[in-house]
Amino acid sequence: MDGRPTRIGYWMTEKKIRRLNFEEFVTICRNAGIELVKIDFDQPLDAQGPFSVILHKLTDQMTAATDGARNKIQVFQHYIDLHPEIVVVDPIDNVMRLLDRRYQYQDVKDCDLVEKNCRYFIPSFVELTSTDVHENWRRLQEYSVRFPCVCKPSVSHVFPSSSPSIDRDEEMAIIFNKKGLADIRKPCIAQSFINHNARLFKIFVVGQKQFIVQRPSIRNLYDCDQETIYFNSNDVSKSNSSSVLNQLDEKDLSSHPLIEPDCKKMELFVRGIQRKIGLDLLGVDLIIENDTGRYAVIDINAFPGYDGVPEFFNVLLQLILEKIVIFNNRAAHKFPAASELPPNFSNSVCRSGEVDDGEESDGGWNQVYSDARLSGTSVIPDRTLGPKETCSFLPPGSRNFYTSLPRQCSHPALCVCYKDVASSGIAPVANGDRTAVINRFGLL
Prior knowledge:
Distance between the termini: 38 Å
Helix content: 25-40%
Radius of gyration: 23 Å
Structural class: alpha+beta
């Protein structure tokens, strides 16, 4: 794209490589003339480069309490700091924040949609760091966590050696009453259990593309004298899982009929979450609350398994190629020409702030302004369109494009191609190294 061959460096565990069948990606890259290089942390990284992109799954190393794992992360971060020209999928700091469930859940809670719309929520939660039953009961009451509640390790992707007391087969616990608080394994996040008719919706995200896969989940549960149940979430929610925990009682279905998911609402929710946490590869676990139909997030994972996503590696490669083009042109302070875009370039890469739900228009537009302020980008709207004007901007230091469209705009999602911008009456406005693109299309 800039005359140099595209080289993708990658690192992930052998287990992850096998689960993803990563050799298929190697073949796809080779056929596309792209070199894929597995990074060896025992050798100097500079000697293995240069890299156009680094793709990684370092979550186990981030949570491990070993010197070797910490050193690996430090070496990687130092190399990235020295080479800002490399596109990283995904930023280390953003992944590390996601691994701490306190921050993960708080970020969801702080999403614009959750704050302003009762259709989306994060179940009440609190971190427990004590084994004192009375103290934990007090904290549950203080944070409105009710029984039954699910207790999860405070840090997801816990590496076995970092928490030897945690059996992977008993990673989580369902606590039904105050007595069960004696069973917690600290530190953990206690979260109110939401009845959802044993259905889980995994939304796999690759850039701005989303794939919804339905999985089994925990059956409806109620406050009772039952003993604590320990379980592994993967065993309950695998596509072919048949567990006593995910077998729904027929009486539940008669009293709580299934609520069909609204894919558009789920997509809108996940898009807001993605913008908040700043990752391109993630999996969001959503459930639909019985009776109310509200959408709740119960977990988010960085670079998940993508089981059930068709043509995942082709979608992944398309994302990487798009990010190289956008990142390189951001560095040069220009819009890419049409000829520089990869084949089948998707306009959706610049829709992170798009307003596509009339009820969310003002909130979505405010989010665009907020993103601009945080990134130090000037946003100069076309005032002739009133409060729902459209602006597209490329924040300095960011790898994402943001746009917001009027609810009734007759023009489709803006393309980042400068030629298209110039030929359609959209005026680029430069301010130093910042560029805003003002949409001058009217409303229907």
